[in-house]
Amino acid sequence: MRAVFIGASSLTVMTADILLKRGHEVVIVESNKERINELSKDLDCGFVHGDGTTPAIQRETDPEHSDFLFCLAGNDQANIIASLVGRSLGFPRVVTKIVNPEFEHICVELGLEETIIPAGTMGRYLADKFAGRDLLELSGMIKDEARVFSFVARPEDEGPLEKIVIPGQLHPICLYRDHTFILPDQDTEVKTEDEVVVITHQKFLAQLKDHWTVKKESHQSSLSGGQDNPDETPA
């Protein structure tokens, strides 16, 4: 398989090294030429010098023949923009790393389903480990053609959960309101900005994404003015 990384962060290097040892092809996009020169001594992979948020640079990585785009730069806004560009260029799967949890809601609305928050993921892992829980239990339950999908409720979605007009067939699992977990029943009222998590058949995913995914222009103001993460290398 073939993976493209935006940003030569420490997470990129660690993941790329593992993939290379497993026989996969890796390409890293990085704007810092010195960083590329340094990494090329240890990583036997392809490098593209340039801004990974731009379509021209991403096209150089050959999206049509790639399997994954990992946006792991040190800036949340850059990762979100790079992810949207990568999706438009045809990368089959796009993984978006963010540091600020406030952007998670926006990623859901933009249809960036495979969003990771490293600190949050590690925190839940450690808390579950402390509690003695089986970390793979849920992933083992979602088998065959079952899929989990989440969306952010809009004003027109407000009302009883069971009355929301949803294309396809699905069942609600839970919802989050102001970062608080709610286990719904048939009388649960959905409010604007609730994140609703449902389980559905794989064949309905495209319909669900089309129904709830918004265009990135509507959030352009939310993505401006952010600060770089000083602990990571920018794309």
For the structure shown, list the relevant keywords:
6-stranded parallel beta sheet, Alpha-Beta Plaits, Rossmann fold, disordered C terminus
Would you mind describing this structure in some detail?
β2, α2 (33-39) and β3 form a beta-alpha-beta unit. The protein has helices at 10-21, 33-39, 55-59, 76-89, 102-109, 118-131, 137-141, 205-212, and strands at 2-6, 25-30, 46-49, 68-71, 93-97, 114-116, 146-152, 159-160, 170-177, 180-182, 189-190, 195-201. It has 2 domains: 2-123 and 217-223, NAD(P)-binding Rossmann-like Domain (Rossmann fold, 3-Layer(aba) Sandwich), CATH 3.40.50; 142-213, Alpha-Beta Plaits (2-Layer Sandwich). Strands 3-2-1-4-5-6 form a 6-stranded parallel beta sheet, sandwiched between helices. It has a 4-stranded antiparallel beta sheet with strand order 7-12-9-10. Helix content is 31%, strand content 24%. The chain is α/β, with parallel strands linked by helices and 235 residues long. Residues 215-228 and 230-234 have low confidence and may be disordered.
